[in-house]
């Protein structure tokens, strides 16, 4: 079993930056595809970013491309989401997720059903 714990969230203003962390425990996730998802108030959970250690491949949602960066530190078993130029529409609960199968095709990183481990989520309110 893998446990995922998000941290780093909190109230920010539009234009600010914030870095979320996701610490994994229970197993080494270096070969897992790791993803970030978010659920805005009253809406469905949506893909934000995904990362594979195989070649450092990444995939981003169009809405965050160029503003958010996913990265990982395998020595710390931790994944990060650097969020810059935050907008009020980025307000959501952010979730870390792990795919133990380590899917190869980048296009699949955005599939919510791909991931078999999830964190509890952390709120990120962005005020205007």
Q: What labels would you give this structure?
A:
four-stranded antiparallel beta sheet, 0% helix, mainly beta, six-stranded antiparallel beta sheet, 128 residues
Chain-averaged pLDDT: 95
Low-confidence stretches: none
* Cα radius of gyration in angstroms: 13 Å
- Total of helices: 0
Structural class: mainly beta
Question: How far apart, in Å, are the first and last alpha carbons?
Answer: 40 Å
Could you give the order of the helices and strands?
Answer: EEEEEEEEEEEE
Strand segment tally: 12
Mind summarizing the main beta sheet?
A: 6 strands, antiparallel
What proportion of the residues is helical, as a percent range?
under 10%
- Oligomer status: single chain
Shape: globular
Q: Strand-residue fraction?
A: over 45%
Task: Please characterize this protein's 3D structure.
The chain is mainly β and 128 residues long. The protein is 0% helix and 45% strand. The protein contains no helices and 12 strands. It has strands at 3-7, 12-13, 18-25, 33-39, 46-51, 58-60, 68-73, 78-83, 92-99, 117-118, 122-124, 126-127. Strands 4, 5, 6, 9, 10 and 11 form a 6-stranded antiparallel beta sheet that branches. A 4-stranded antiparallel beta sheet has the order 1-3-8-7, with no helix packed on it. The chain is globular and about 40 Å long. The termini are far apart.
């Amino acid at each position: 079993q893998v446990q995922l714990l998000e941290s780093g969230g909190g109230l920010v203003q539009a234009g600010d930056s914030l870095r979320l962390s996701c610490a994994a425990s229970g197993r080494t996730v270096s070969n897992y595809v790791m993803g970030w998802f978010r659920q805005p108030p009253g809406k469905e959970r949506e893909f934000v970013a995904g990362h594979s250690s195989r070649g450092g491949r990444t995939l981003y949602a169009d809405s965050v491309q160029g503003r958010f960066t996913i990265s990982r530190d395998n020595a710390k078993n931790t994944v990060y989401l650097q969020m810059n130029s935050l907008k009020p529409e980025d307000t959501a609960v952010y979730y870390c997720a792990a795919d133990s199968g380590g899917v190869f095709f980048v296009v699949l990183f955005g599939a919510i059903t791909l991931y078999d481990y999830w964190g509890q989520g952390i709120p990120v309110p962005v005020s205007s």
